[in-house]
Amino acid sequence: MKKTIKTFVFLFLVTATVACKNDTKKTESTIEYPETSEQATAPENDNTTVVLEGNDQMQFDKSEIDVPVGKTISLTLKHTGKLAKEVMGHNFVLLDQGVDFNDFASKAVLAKETDYIPADATGVLAHTKVIGGGESVTVEFTISEAGTYDFLCSFPGHSAMMKGKLIAK
Ligand code: CO
């Protein structure tokens, strides 16, 4: 009879040990979940950065900017010249598809008080303030629809030269 009890206890211990090992394995595998979800939230560090330079010769250094659809674009406009913003001011203005470029540009030059963005302007997806030589400014935006978008500097007389296409894919 005693032997039966001993056997029972032994079997119980073996079962308990195996159960514990299983528990340990489960714990180990649940530890992996936070790592996976950290990777899933990684897009925060996945912003697309663009640097667009403007100079004293009234030129942007890019006429085409490629960006991904649906991601945060962090665009920095950098004025590499020395001239003041009153004489060689630059901004970055991104127009929605369907906005008439020349119509917008001709209205924008009159809007000095609002950094050459007409107060009643529609279809401006993103813009910076006007900056002068040595300054830089950053604007963040997201393009939700693939396509080709016009960008320009809307400072008086600049849009004929300082313009380009932003292509979202
Ligand atoms: Co300009």
Q: Name the strands of the widest sheet in spatial order.
A: 2-8-7-4-5
- Bound ligands, named by name, code or SMILES: cobalt (II) ion
Helix content: 25-40%
Shape, principal axes of CA atoms:
globular
List segments where confidence is low: pLDDT < 50 over at least 5 consecutive residues.
Answer: 1-43
Strand content: 25-35%
- What is the H-and-E element order? HEEEHEHEEEE
Structure annotation, total helices:
3
Strand-pairing-aware structural class: alpha/beta
Mean pLDDT score = 83
- Largest sheet report: 5 strands, mixed
What is the straight-line distance between the termini? 79 Å
Gyration radius, rounded:
30 Å
Number of strands: 8
Describe this structure in words.
The protein is of the alpha/beta class and 169 residues long. The protein contains three helices and eight strands, in the order H-E-E-E-H-E-H-E-E-E-E. It has helices at residues 2-40, 85-88, 101-108, and strands spanning 48-54, 64-67, 72-79, 93-95, 124-127, 136-142, 147-152, 163-168. The strands form two sheets. The chain has a five-stranded mixed sheet with strand order 2-8-7-4-5, with no helix packed on it.
